[in-house]
Every structure is written in C-alpha cells, then in structure tokens.
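Quarterly update from the structural biology core.
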Amino acid sequence: MSWPWQTFLEAGGYRRAQIGVIIMNENHWREDLKERLKVFGKQAASVLIDCLFLALWLVLQWLVEAMATNLEPSGIDKKILLAFQIVFAISTLAPIVVYIYTDIRVMVLRARRRIQAEENSRRTNDADKQ
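Predicted structure, tokenized:
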C-alpha cells in the first residue's frame, strides 16, 4: 500500500527501508546543497560582473563628458563632439546589454529545465506507483 506522503518523501531524498521505516539518504542533502550553492554562485557572479561592466560604462561616460566640457567646443566642433558622445555611448552600452540579456535568459532557461525535470520525475514516480 502506498501513502501519498511517501511519494513526497521519496522525491525529497528519502528512501524506504526494507522494514517499512523511512530513512534519509545521508549524502543527498549535501549534494543538493552543493548543487544549489553552485547554481547560486554562478548567478551571483554573473550579476556582479554585469554590474561592474555597467559601472565601468558609467565611468567612461563621465570621463567623456568631463573631457567634452573641458574642451569647450563651439560651432561644428560642438555638433561633432555630441555625435561622438552619442555613438560612443551606444556602442559601448550595446555589448553590456547583450551580456545582461544573455545572462538573464540563461538563468530563466536553467530554471525552466529544472522545473521540467522535477515534473518528469513526479510523472515517472506516479506511473511506477500505479
């Protein structure tokens, strides 16, 4: 006879002993914790690197602006310098935005894959019980 809570406990790393007592697999929680810390570490490092790139971009933009105000251009030089600032800002920001989008997309896809694997595992467990 199968109890509903047995499926939950077995899916969570518990194994049913021969005598009918549920025991915990000692290594499962450690492996699960290591895996979660590994995933979190990768995500945190990715976010930190993205933030550092954005901070670097802001510093570069500030330096370009400081240089532009110190030059005090006039006439056509002022328009060319403004065009340079706009092109420089867009061209240096575009790769950073691409990396941030890629990192977010990878995080979402990995989360979706983990959810799908869990659903497949539950379906398999349910089919084995019946």
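Residues 1-9, 11-24 have pLDDT under 50 and may be disordered.
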